[in-house]
Amino acid sequence: MSFLRRYSLEGCVASILFIVLFGVLLIQIFGRTPLFTGPVWTEEAARWLWVWMAFIGIAEVERQNGQLRMGFIADALPLSWRRLLFILIDVVYLAIVAHLVWISYKTVLRTWNNEAVTLPMSDAVLYASGLVASVLILHRIARRLAMLVRGGDAGEVHQ
């Protein structure tokens, strides 16, 4: 497996966010001891990092095609019918995620002037996590759909 297939932008970013989140949590923990007083922004930063990590992680799961699914119906179908079923599922999924991109975009615009409580930035940065993840997921679904339409093995694509 090549480096680019094994590691992705989504996975690397989610991993870095996890490491930063771990550091922020350590600051929170040690800030509650007599060693030093913890900064007030760590709680909000931890929540924001968690949200970003979770959404980007969802995009990574979509890249790996590792989401939960019940495959007993698809496995019972012949390959051509299975491919049609997966194309239909991905077209519906693509439409739903495209709508989520639009909703996320409108949410970012609506919250652009709202200030975060303890962080020196707009609340839109938090809501941008949904937008970024939705765009990444949309990209991965479109790639998978293109492979299915070109005749890729439905069993291979949806394993």
Automatic annotation (TrEMBL):
It comes from the Bacteria. One of its GO terms (biological process) is C4-dicarboxylate transport. It is found in: Cell inner membrane. Residues 22-150 form the Tripartite ATP-independent periplasmic transporters DctQ component domain. Pfam families: DctQ. GO terms for cellular component: plasma membrane. GO terms for molecular function: transmembrane transporter activity. Keywords: Cell inner membrane, Cell membrane, Membrane, Transmembrane, Transmembrane helix, Transport. Its main location: membrane. The chain crosses the membrane at residues 12-30, 45-63, 84-105, 125-142. It is a multi-pass membrane protein. The keyword Lipid metabolism does not apply. The complex comprises the extracytoplasmic solute receptor protein and the two transmembrane proteins. Belongs to the TRAP transporter small permease family. Part of the tripartite ATP-independent periplasmic (TRAP) transport system. This is TRAP transporter small permease protein. It comes from Nitratireductor aquibiodomus. The lineage of its organism: Bacteria, Pseudomonadati, Pseudomonadota, Alphaproteobacteria, Hyphomicrobiales.
